[in-house]
């Protein structure tokens, strides 16, 4: 999953074994005033979890379901957490069909197939 990345700490147990993206709000991926989208190709339909934290660039959550059952927390890793103490991250989910999808580059994603 996010081993060795900034965003790997304290995820809910149900999500800890999932494969996910490793970057968010990356300035080297910035296009104009927006962050570059994440292009993904899913080999089959799967549930995608989107993690959005307070300091991230705002993300369009249309069609995503807030997963209050997974809780909110400071899911960013210790290397980054010191910069944003008390950070709150929220998890959303959505089922995406097999095929190519464009995801907002201002969030983190986990994939469950």
Considering the chains and any ligands shown, give keywords for the structure:
mainly beta; 113 residues; 35% strand; disordered N terminus
Gist of the model:
This protein has 113 residues and is mostly beta strands.
- Count of alpha and pi helical runs: 1
The class by helix and strand makeup works out as: mainly beta
User: What fraction of residues sit in β-strands?
Assistant: 25-35%
Largest sheet: 5 strands, antiparallel
Secondary-structure element series: EEEEEEHEEE
Taking pLDDT < 50 over at least 5 consecutive residues as the criterion, the unreliable ranges are: 1-7
**How are the strands of the largest sheet arranged?**
1-9-5-7-6
Count of DSSP E strands?
9
Radius of gyration (CA) equals 13 Å
Layout: helices, strands, pairs:
Elements: E1 19-20, E2 30-31, E3 34-35, E4 38-42, E5 46-53, E6 65-66, H1 78-81, E7 89-96, E8 99-103, E9 108-112
Antiparallel strand pairs: 1-9, 2-3, 4-8, 5-7, 5-9, 6-7
Molecular structure report:
With 113 residues, the chain is mainly beta. Helices cover 4% and strands 35% of the residues. It has a five-stranded antiparallel beta sheet, with no helix packed on it. Strand 2 and strand 3 form a beta hairpin. The longest helix is centred in the last third of the chain and has 4 residues. The protein is globular and about 40 Å long.
């Amino acid at each position: 999953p996010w081993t060795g990345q900034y965003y790997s700490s304290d995820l809910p147990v149900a999500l800890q074994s999932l494969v996910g993206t490793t970057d968010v709000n990356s300035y080297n991926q910035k296009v104009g005033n927006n962050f570059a989208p994440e292009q993904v190709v899913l080999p089959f339909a799967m549930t995608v979890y989107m993690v959005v934290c307070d300091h991230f660039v705002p993300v369009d959550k249309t069609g995503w379901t807030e997963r209050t059952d997974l809780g909110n927390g400071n899911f960013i890793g210790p290397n980054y957490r010191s910069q944003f103490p008390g950070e709150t991250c929220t998890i959303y989910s959505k089922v995406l069909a097999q095929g190519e999808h464009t995801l907002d580059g201002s969030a983190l994603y986990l994939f469950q197939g």
